[in-house]
Write a sequence for this structure.
DNA sequence: GTCGTCGATGTGGTCAGACCACAGAATACA
DNA sequence: TGTATTCTGTGGTCTGACCACATCGACGAC
């Protein structure tokens, strides 16, 4: 039915006129044009395939990419939850990207930690700089701190720890930084967890972390940006410095 | 051959035991174990499919994801450049993710610019803090500035502009920040280009930008971190402020 | 009339097989 | 010896067929 030799894809711009990329371009164009927005449903795969003149497998390839990148969510069956639905949730995609890049050596763990430091400092600076009358909502973060006071396993504690930092990022209102923080934290989660086993005393460390969290939140609430920055830096770099000995095997070989 | 009813995938950990995800997990495991490193070639798709007990289409799905995320590069034909080769280049994946998230409304353009500001400031701070005797290599960035002195179209100028900022990030040595900067810049490139057409005077603006670049580089070379930070902030926010009127239609609807 | 059951329908998920294009290697031939 | 041809192995794509699943609607029991 469709182009066997001529390959009618109208976008051989760069170098690889692959079928699934043309589907991706098409959907991106519809997003850009506002024709597709979060909450909308994409056409069924089979319809999209015939409409665009490609095979269903190519459409599926594009949808899979969109799914991994957090752009859509797919569901089987029928009804409102079925089909491919635009969601535009970057966190998952960012986490996958970073996790795999760390696994593949594209990102050194030390760089991930350093970047987290930069972003985290920016977040608390931003939060502390807010006008008090229109302050960001720090309640979710505070609630997480309360939850961390309970008796928890290391994994549970670290999960809440991550959620706390993420809550701060969310409160700052920058979706890009929030997604990045989520991905960064996620990508080194296994290292944080593996390193926890090598700490001299988990109870001491967790007590210290709890206090540091309280301190950071208090500094933000008191609009003391420099203090908040300092505390955040010490908090993060301190934890990773304490547990670095065992893992952290970086492999910055960037051959082709 | 493989499991029709029992679905022998050994990793139904979370919620979605999809075939291509199991392939992805398998490859991620091999990366983590050091069994696969940049430069290595993955097994052929057909072999991988039979080995893992899934269809070739599922293998292809995983490989496509890895390709989009910048983990592998695929090539047809035979010879050393064929097959799927691990490369671990995060820039492309980051750019795709951010571009699509901006298109889908997951990222507001303003947040992208704000994040770029944060990272760019961190980069120059880091560069300025280096010990003079082991200073980062700023030569590539300087060369780009020389190239920008020529008579260029707006698109050419902006491309070199992006390359200059990227060169700074690379000089800082943080691969994560470099990839993020690349992606951020890339995702708003169309806005930067579209906005350039609305500037009162391109020649004036480009002259100013050139001077600002020189200033930033000089501040870094003089180890004046505060100055470099200030200049970078003014440089970026100034440009976007000057051209914001027309585009920048954010759509922060985060339903579903 | 109401409610439960059970098929019809439409969706994504997967598999299998068949081609094609491509690039290098092996072979045949001049 | 050198060139042309064929072979082989790779990813890229299409097609068709299933399956699992979730909803909807018709039908019959009560």
């Amino acid at each position: 039915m469709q182009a066997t030799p001529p390959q009618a894809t109208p976008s051989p711009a760069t170098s690889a006129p692959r079928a699934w990329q043309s589907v991706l371009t098409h959907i991106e164009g519809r997003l850009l044009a506002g024709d597709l927005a979060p909450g909308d449903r994409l056409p069924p795969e089979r319809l999209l395939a015939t409409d665009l003149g490609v095979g269903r497998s190519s459409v599926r390839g594009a949808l899979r990419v969109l799914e991994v990148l957090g752009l859509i969510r797919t569901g089987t069956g029928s009804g409102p939850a079925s089909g491919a639905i635009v969601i535009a949730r970057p966190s998952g995609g960012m986490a996958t990207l970073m996790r795999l890049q760390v696994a593949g050596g594209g990102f050194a763990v030390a760089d991930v930690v350093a970047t987290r430091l930069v972003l985290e400092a920016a977040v608390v600076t931003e939060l502390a700089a807010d006008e008090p009358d229109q302050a960001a909502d720090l309640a979710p973060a505070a609630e997480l701190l309360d939850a961390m006071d309970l008796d928890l396993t290391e994994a549970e504690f670290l999960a809440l720890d991550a959620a706390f930092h993420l809550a701060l990022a969310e409160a700052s209102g920058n979706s890009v930084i929030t997604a990045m923080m989520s991905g960064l934290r996620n990508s080194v989660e296994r290292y944080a967890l593996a390193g926890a086993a090598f700490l001299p005393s988990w109870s001491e460390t967790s007590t210290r972390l709890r206090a540091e969290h309280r301190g950071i939140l208090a500094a933000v609430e008191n609009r003391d940006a420099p203090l908040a920055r300092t505390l955040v830096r010490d908090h993060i770099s301190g934890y990773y410095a304490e547990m670095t000995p065992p893992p952290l095997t970086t492999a910055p070989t960037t051959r082709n």
Summary: Residues 109-129 of chain A form the longest helix (21 residues).
